[in-house]
Amino acid sequence: MSYPTQYDPKTDPSTFVFPEPLGTTTVTIEFCDRVSRLHRATWIQTELFLTFPSPVIGSITLIPLSLEETAGRFRVWLSYKSKPAELVWDRKVEGGFPELKILKQRIRDRIQPGKSLGHSDNIPRVMESK
After folding, report:
1. pTM: predicted TM-score of the whole model, two decimal places
2. Is 2 a residue whose pLDDT tops 90?
C-alpha cells in the first residue's frame, strides 16, 4: 500500500465537515424492524429518489423502530416548504402498506403537482365485453 508523499487536505479527515441540514424537501420512513421491513423501506426510498431526484427530494431518512409501542409501524412523513412534517402514509390507518403508485402520487401532489408520473398516472381502462 502506498501513501501520498505530499499533504493533501482533500484526504485529511480532520478537514472534513459534516453536511449542513438541507433546506429542501425531506421524506422520513419509520418502520418496525422486528418483522423485517427494512427491505420494503429501502425499496421505497430508492423508488422515491428515482422519481423525485435531488434537489426535488433532498434526503430520505430511514428510522428503524423496535419498541413494543411501535410494533408493526410503517409511516411515511413529508417535510417541505418549512411546514411541519405531514403524514403521507400510516400502515395501520390505511389498512396496509402503500402501493408505490399511490405513495408517489400523494408526494407528487404536494411537492410537484404538475409532474407526470408516466404509467403511475394511467387510469385502468375497463374492459368492454363483446
Report:
1. 0.79
2. no
Q: Tell me, what amino acid is at 128? A: E
Q: What is the pLDDT of residues 77-105, one digit of tens each?
A: 999 988 889 999 999 999 999 999 999 99
Q: What are phi and psi of 89, to 5 degrees?
A: -155, 140
Q: Which amino acid is at 122?
A: N
125 half-sphere exposure, CB direction, 13 A CA radius: 4
CA distance 52 to 128: 36
For domain 25-113, the question of CATH label 1.20.120.80 is answered with no
Q: Which residues pair with 86 in a beta bridge?
A: 78
Taking each helix axis from N to C end, the angle separating 38-51 and 100-111, rounded to the nearest 10 degrees, works out to: 50
